[in-house]
Design a protein that fits this description.
CATH class of the largest domain: Alpha Beta
Structural class: alpha/beta
Number of domains: 2
Number of strands: 15
Distance between the termini: 39 Å
Strand content: 15-25%
Largest sheet: 7 strands, mixed
CATH architecture of the largest domain: Alpha-Beta Horseshoe
CATH topology of the largest domain: pyruvate-formate lyase- activating enzyme
Bound molecules: iron/sulfur cluster
Helix content: 25-40%
Number of helices: 17
Amino acid sequence: MPERLKIALINPESPADVYYFPTGLCYISSYLKKYSEVNPDIAIYNIDSSNRDKVVEFEPDIIGITCFTHSYSDALELSEYYRSIVNDALLILGGCHISVIPESLGGEFDYAVIGEGEQTMLEIVSLVASGKSDEIAKIDGVAYRSNGKVVINKPRAIIEDLDEIPFPERDSVEEAESIIRTDHPGWFGALGLRYMQLTTSRGCPYRCIFCQPSVMWGKYRMNSPEYIAAEIEYIYNKFGINAILIEDDLFTGSKSRVARLIELLEDKKLLGRIRYYIAGRTSQIDSDWADMLGRMGVCKVEFGIESGSDPIAAYLKTGKTSTEINKRAVTLLNSRGIGVFGSFIAGAPPETMNDLNETFKMIHWIRKSSPLNTCGIGIATPLPGTGLWEYAVKRNLIDTNNFDWRKLSTLKKFPESEADMVYLNEHIPADRMLKEIKKLQFRLKLGSPREFIKALPRRLKKLTRRIFKIHK
Ligand code: SF4
């Protein structure tokens, strides 16, 4: 064992597609650096098949790979690759997918870290450093394979006070500067803003039938306003950013927290210097919230509206939801100059063509309400750990022994055909559903004639880059 333990933390994605810091890995890194007695050397990578040897050159003692469900197949392939090259490194899997379905553990992984990874990784690092790797099988929060079966240990208690975790260690990310660049696709890129991600809470008090992160994180917890203001000040000064994407599943969990945060940002003279993108619930938004978010500098709020049909929205979501509530929230925010991103899901099991048309109507209503508003729509996807997963397993739509996890992508490619997904709807044929959504997406992409003309220079620039393969 070298004097300084080397740890490679990997996010299995294509660097060409990734414009985000792997925040979860950055938290693991900062936690280990603060609390580990062995002072590990840590590097974080966004990895695909073209750059995976970077990790080999680092000569790690531990390789930790995180993944979502859609990237689980990539994580399995990476584990096989690294096992064949750096045979003696400990291979550990973590992240959302394996936390909610540890029994799917495969590949060449020695262990899986289940749930929140900081404390479990700290214990693993300490055991490896003291030559007691065999004892990892006894600790809480891990799973491993033994005699062809997956053994799942007792879950580890969650970290109640998130302020105990230091700010995520973004400096360990190899491509840090290229991630912060301003020419990203998407909304911040369109505004030419230099942005950074920020997390201020874990989990969500709701349990919508399709939502995997709320299952993974368990109890909803929030950082204090003092912690958040200090982190904003730090990244503003360190990285020279002018926009922040708050990654929380639900930022609007507490009014008093945001009110205090605004006071602190004002004290630090940061109010008005940074624009924010957040996610909220329409049922929470009242005039006070709209005023506060405007004052904070929020310029876009993402709402999981899911459906324009009230019965389908009620099927998909927990808590209060209705078209009336959704429209009121959109109007309140738009009246303060705040845009809305409406996120929708098509293809829930009971959805009919009438329901789908209601969704399309709602999308058009949002788009027409303000030029600041945008919308996106995806296919109902049965992610492990969710109610939709149970629905799919009960109906034998999924055989976990022989399954292509890439079919469960909510973040990557939109399905081309029924073969690319697990289709759940009981009333509309899959090919018709895909055709209708593609038509809608095309119209959304083009926008109104005014939006189309405004976006022309950016589109031409993008096309030129693609043709000449220019990368900054
Ligand atoms: S409100 Fe959003 S984050 Fe919370 S459970 Fe529903 S979909 Fe998930």
